[in-house]
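Troubleshooting: if your tokenizer reports a length mismatch, compare against these two reference records.
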Amino acid sequence: MEPINESDFYFIYEDDKLNEEKEKVSIEKQVKNKKGLVVIVYSFSPEIEEIIKFGLKSILDQYEKSGLVNTVYNVLFESILNGLKANSKKLFFIENSINIDNPDDYAKGMIQFKKDINKSNLRQSGAKNKERNIYVRVKFTYDSSGLEIEVLNNTQLLPAEEARIREKLALGDKYDDLMSYYMDNSDSTEGEGLGLVLSLILLKAENLDPSLFRIGTKNGLTFARIEIPFNNQFISKRNHLL
């Protein structure tokens, strides 16, 4: 994939002044000119959700891959949601003066956080996240060989969290359908990690290599990278994630 200069990326920021129709026109122009797209997300409002899906669809339509829109968006949605949950947790611990690095405090804080967290909270926390510069960045880079989507959030995973994610990805890689996974693991999962497993299964169903969906941390940031080859000229960056 040919690198795109940073100056060639079009940036969209989630805020109250966001004009959905205007941004869609800009996205269409950007995709037509084969330039990159970045969306900065604070709370995943319905408007920004629609813009992200529109951007993805525009890119896949450009390269006659529209049949992948729903699958890729579901995987992308899961990655964004996980980033927002991590950021919401960071904000919760800050506001409640909980030491995230203390195992006992962390365990107690997580019990309360899980009781409080829901989609409504994620949508309403945008102003606080923006004020503290806590965000999720969705970056689309593409050319005729394929599409790379990087979901970055500026909250680093704790070692135990990263280990659990890798465990879920390794487990999910063994299954080709969600029912088989659930039947084998329903007693222990309690729903945790189900979205990651589903992402792998969805990719497999489209004959996409699940190893091209990667998660990692670097320099205090957490990355999820989704790579979608359009042809055999595509070169994966999976070895350069960490």
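Reference record two:
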Amino acid sequence: MLPIYLQALSFHDIYGNGDDCIHAAADMAAELGIAGLDIEDRLLENYEPEYLQELAHSVGSRGVQFGYAGVIVPFNEPVSSIPGEIERAKALIDAVPHLGISSIRIPGNGVVNGQTLEFTFEKVREKFQTVCDYAADAGVTVFLHNHNHGSTPSTGAQVLKMLDEVDSPALAHVVDTGQFQGSPGSSGDGAPAKVAEEQLYESIEMCAPRASLARTKFYFADSGDEQWLDYPRIVRILKNAKFDSPLSIVYEPRGDVLSKDALPKAVKYLTELFENS
């Protein structure tokens, strides 16, 4: 079975946006016997080495480990927010070694305020080039994250174009199963019906061979297994692409199932699919 990590931000429904989410994710990862947890920059109290090292010790003492650390991006703001994002990414790159983390995750930006897709895409490309240049010197991997919410890159074709145009050994790709265009869980050009459109699966199939990590999104809007996304199909796509990298489970509730109940259910469901399909 592939290594499984829990996205700590998934616990924000119970603990808000703070490091209590990190401790909860570490506890659950240890209880479930999985690899560990992924975090977001917004969950960290500060970047002081002593605080980060104590947090790393607390997580490690449970027998689990950190995966990646993500950078928040304001999708509804114009690309004028990018210089600030770059500075925050650089600060996170400097901080993550104290946590034993060697990779960060960054999405693109929203196509807003009358900007064209082409203009925004170019600014996002420049953002990734700048961050990757800095990360390469630090020995940190930068995961390009496909993310809709009206942003780019949010299709398979856009992701592949970005991967091809950013020239850096630090660049990698995290394929998010619930954030391509066509996903009912994303905004922007996401599907209005609560069933994923074909273009979502086409994008996953295009990008899976280039991915070094998969963010497996769960919504659990209704009782039973995940219904908005066809995970038997997604798992087949990943297997056909010979995907052999970690899985990061991300829970974005669309119903009344709490994270403490949803995440163990998602781990069990995903594990069974990979073992039996």
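Descriptive notes for reference record two:
- The longest helix spans residues 117-138.
- Strands lie at 4-7, 36-40, 65-70, 103-107, 109-110, 141-145, 151-152, 171-176, 213-218, 247-251.
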